[in-house]
Amino acid sequence: MRRISPVLLLVLALAGAAAGFLIDHALTTAGRPTFTPSIVLPIFLVLLAVAVLALAWPIRRSTRSATSRRVDPFRAVRIAMLARASSLVGAVITGFGAGLGAYLLSRPITPPIGSIIATAVAALVLTIAAVIAESFCLLPGDGPPDPDGQNGPRLEDDDDDSRAAADTGH
User: What keywords is this UniProt entry annotated with (predicted)?
Assistant: First the structure.
């Protein structure tokens, strides 16, 4: 399993920023009030970041220590996927909050944007915590590269039959 790409997180943050800006613009042109997230959202995002780190910490402790207990690989994968999903959601919400803030700051009258800034910062904290938690769930060291040029173990059904079929045109 490879780590999540920072480029993907950046693209999602930019897409979220564009969505936040355009949604606020559409609401304003329709004569409706702009979107302001509840103060509960940043609190929830920070609690989610703490939970993801707390779930990943025992896996890090057992993979990094010499006297380690055996880690259930299915649990490690589930927590790694939770961390990956949390980093994706955090990146989108970070961008969305930044887009909302950018639109509101472009207006002639500056509205209160404390909740929007808190949401963007909490989502950024979630993204960083999730990336750290994902790294906790990976085994230390890169390991030997496999023939495909990617690091990590090969799956049992990754044999040469699929390459031979592809090479013959089947």
Answer: Membrane, Transmembrane, Transmembrane helix
